[in-house]
Structures are given as structure tokens and as C-alpha cells.
Design a protein that fits this description.
This protein is of the alpha/beta class. α4 packs across α5. It has a domain of about 170 residues: P-loop containing nucleotide triphosphate hydrolases (Rossmann fold, 3-Layer(aba) Sandwich). A hairpin with a 2-residue loop joins β1 and β2. The structure holds adenosine-5'-triphosphate and magnesium ion (MG). The site of adenosine-5'-triphosphate has 11 residues, from α1.
Length: about 250
């Protein structure tokens, strides 16, 4: 059994008395590549924010690397759904990535910071663009740079919130091949609407529509996968609970 790195137990989150997450229980392990799918407004981003300690659940328990989310999150890299970044800012790809190493004020970046930044750029296949101004990249290239920024603190868990939403199929393939490499070093949780990608690359899947349905390891080949993916979207849209893959 691999060790659990994130554990959520019976998590409830409300906005204005409306339940957004209902009784969510989830265990993430160090070897996981988990996709979370589900309809718009299903609570996927909220769930990631709970794991990061940015939203405090109204009830339930959560442990991140054996600590509270606020403490444990130093081991998490995060790529938000919407990155607020001024792409006209006169800053190079290299500097954007190195900013991920963020330091206490007035402390200079070290040689190690530089090395790790170069490594991360190489990992995401963007080393050759390191001196380019950040705005002068394609959408897919920018996403890879942001992944590099998310991994320079050498996280043990990477949370990605719809990272390929605006990327063409060819670039998506490059992106997911890159994730397969990263998976060797860290657990990955990927929020996505792209079910074809899910069937090709990820190992575990969970469907979230306020309630979470965990499907665990995918089994049964492509035919089975197609079945799964028609299912959760439809079932979730109708709000009908479903528990295990086999009964879909
Ligand atoms: N700050 C907030 N205040 C009030 N309601 C919110 C807030 N943030 C999110 N919500 C609501 O919580 C629900 C879940 O939102 P969330 O962003 O987690 O969904 P999501 O699954 O990530 O959706 P999408 O696929 O569109 O990104 C939505 O109904 C949303 O309107
Ligand atoms: Mg979202």
C-alpha cells in the first residue's frame, strides 16, 4: 500500500448556506495520477482550494502530508484555472518560472534557484524559450511555463485546474506526455473536461457534482472507458448518485 498524502473525510463546504461540497471523502496517494471530472459548478475548483487551505471547510477533516493544509501546502504545486498574469509585463520566461521559488523579501536568488529553474524549463520542454518575453508565446507554451513555475519548489503533489482548456489537440498531447514524465516525481491531480485525455493518460478518476464518486484505478480497456465517460457526465448532470464503476 502506498502512503496517503492527502486525506479528506466528510468535507462539507457552503457558500451562503448552499452546499457546494457534500460529504466529500477522498484519499490521494503518492503514486496517483487522478483526474477529477464533473459539470460546471460541480465544486472542482472549490475542492482544490480546500486541499490548498484557501477555503476552510464548514465541517470534516483534512490532512495534507500529515499536517494542516496551510502547512502541508508547501509540498504542493498549483496551476489555477485562471491565471491572473499580465502578459505584457516586460519579464522573461526564465524570470516568470524563477518567481515560483519565491523568497523572503530582499533575499537574492541563489545558484540553486537558477539551476532548478533551468531544470524545470527543460522538463516542460521550454528551455529554448527561456529569454523570450512571456507574452510572446502561444497559449499552450504559456501553460507549460506556468507548470514549470509550479514545480520549481519541487512539490510532491501537483494540482492542475483545467490546464488545457485553450490548447489545441496537438499541443494537448505534448502537454500530457509532459505530465507522464512529471508523474515519476510527484502525484498529480488534474481537473479536466476532456474525457478522451482522461482515458489515455490518467490512472484514477473521480466524478464531482457536489458529491464525489471515486472510481479508483481504471480497468477493462478502452471499451470500458468509453462507457465510463458517457456515464458520469450524464449521471452527474441528472444528479443521480452512483457508487461503483461496475454498476454504471
Ligand atoms: N466565492 C464564491 N462565493 C459564492 N459562491 C461561489 C464562490 N465560488 C464558487 N461559488 C459557487 O460554488 C459552486 C462551485 O464552484 P467551483 O468553481 O468549485 O466549480 P467548478 O466545478 O470548478 O466549475 P467549472 O467547471 O465551471 O470550473 C458554483 O455554483 C459557484 O457558483
Ligand atoms: Mg473550476
Amino acid at each position: 500500500m502506498t502512503e496517503e498524502i492527502v486525506g479528506l473525510k466528510n468535507i462539507w463546504v457552503y457558500y451562503n448556506d448552499i452546499p457546494i461540497l457534500e460529504d466529500v471523502t477522498l484519499s490521494i496517494k503518492q503514486t496517483d495520477f487522478l483526474a477529477i471530472i464533473g459539470p460546471n459548478g460541480g465544486g472542482k475548483t472549490t475542492l482544490l482550494k480546500v486541499i490548498l487551505g484557501l477555503i476552510k471547510p464548514d465541517s470534516g477533516e483534512i490532512e495534507v502530508f500529515g499536517e494542516s493544509p496551510r502547512e502541508g501546502r508547501r509540498l504542493i504545486g498549483y496551476l489555477p484555472q485562471y491565471t491572473h498574469f499580465d502578459l505584457n509585463f516586460p519579464i522573461s520566461v526564465f524570470d516568470v518560472v524563477m518567481m515560483g521559488r519565491y523568497k523572503q523579501k530582499f533575499k537574492r536568488y541563489s545558484k540553486k534557484d537558477h539551476e532548478i529553474t533551468l531544470d524545470a524549463l527543460e522538463t516542460v520542454g521550454m528551455l529554448e524559450f527561456k529569454d523570450r518575453q512571456i507574452g510572446r508565446l502561444s497559449g499552450g507554451q504559456i501553460q507549460r511555463v506556468f507548470v514549470a513555475r509550479a514545480i520549481v519548489r519541487e512539490p510532491k503533489l501537483l494540482l492542475l485546474d483545467e490546464p488545457t482548456a485553450s490548447i489545441d489537440p496537438e499541443m494537448q498531447k505534448v502537454f500530457y506526455e509532459m505530465l507522464l514524465e512529471l508523474k515519476k516525481k510527484m502525484a498529480i491531480v488534474l481537473v479536466t473536461h476532456d474525457t478522451s485525455v482522461v482515458s489515455t493518460y490518467v490512472d484514477e478518476i473521480a466524478c464531482l457534482n457536489r458529491r464525489l464518486f471515486y472510481h479508483g484505478k481504471l480497468e477493462g480497456g478502452i471499451g470500458m472507458l468509453e462507457e465510463i465517460y458517457k456515464c458520469p457526465i450524464e449521471v452527474l448532470a441528472h444528479g443521480t448518485p452512483h457508487r461503483v464503476l461496475k454498476t454504471h
